[in-house]
Amino acid sequence: MNNRTGDASLPQVLILTPMKNAARHLDGYFDGLRGLDYPAGNLSLGILEGDSSDGTFERLEEMAARNSSRFRRMSLWRRNYGFSMPPQLPRWMPAFQYPRRVVLAKSRNYLLFSALDDEDWVLWLDCDVIAYPADVLKRLIGSGCDIVQPHCVRAWGGETFDLNAWRDKGRVVMSDMRGGADLQRLDAVGGTMLLVKADIHREGLIFPAFAFGEEHPAIRPSSDFLPPGRRGELETEGLGIMAQSMGYQCWAMPNLEILHAPD
Is 0.85 surpassed by the pTM of this model? Predict the structure, then answer.
């Protein structure tokens, strides 16, 4: 059921967020959404929680009850995959990247297929993005690009956090683009904040839960976390390569910064 009547002159946007052990980020996550300079009646929200050990789902149920009226519609799913990082190890450890990213890709796809209805755009937003300009969504849509993302950093003006967004086989990331044109080409994308035209998802653009694009000229020559002998790109990077294979170009806005929480 739709909770609000939106602005018919603006596109409908579905915000999608997969979550795991995110309880500490939920207040800031919803604060950020409430601060968007975009009509609430044009925003829908879909969240998938899985494999948490910190009460994330229970907190989400409480917050959904308080916040659902702020959106056109809001939906919450739970799906466990049985994957957990060993205690005290950072999530970027190469030995665990492949199974971790496979699960994340599956989670994103499950959420997409469950939540997408009649929206014009899908905004992928990680729950640990803690600050962004109020007009970030309008600026991303206003770029005129089918697939576009801002520049995720840990400190304003600092180095790039989202190193999954790159071009030239991973040699150029957003820090290298800063100060240049406001729109620059990407070969691969990250998922901290990523805007995708919904019809491209409907056409089949997904987050590959496998090494995709073995013969594509844009993939990196090697990866630290793919199984031996495998080539291609996975999850968000795989989405970027798949988009190119479908005839779409991904873009970066390196001068539009958003802030990621400290690890």
Answer: yes
CB 238 within 8 A of CB 212: yes
What the block records as the tokens of 40 is: 């609430």
Residues 29/47, Cβ–Cβ less than 8 Å: no
Going by C-beta distance under 8 Å and a sequence separation of 6 or more, which residues neighbour residue 204? 246
- CA pair distance 180, 189, nearest whole angstrom: 19
pLDDT at 4: 64
For residue 27, the one-letter residue type is: D
Q: Report pLDDT digits (tens) over 19-46.
A: 999 999 999 999 999 999 999 999 999 9
| DSSP character at residue 42 | G
- Cβ atoms of residues 206 and 240 within 8 Å: no
Reference 125, options 217, 193, 43; nearest CA is 193
* DSSP line for 69-117: GGSSEEEEEE------PPTT--TT-HHHHHHHHHHHHHHHHHHHHHH-S
Q: Are 49 and 76 in contact (CB under 8 A)?
A: yes
Please name the amino acid found at residue 31: D
> What is the separation, in whole angstroms, between the first and last Cα of the chain?
37
Distance between CA atoms of residues 150 and 136, nearest Å: 8
Assigned token pair, 184? 């620059």
Residue 58: the pLDDT is: 96
**What residues of the chain score a pLDDT lower than 50?**
1
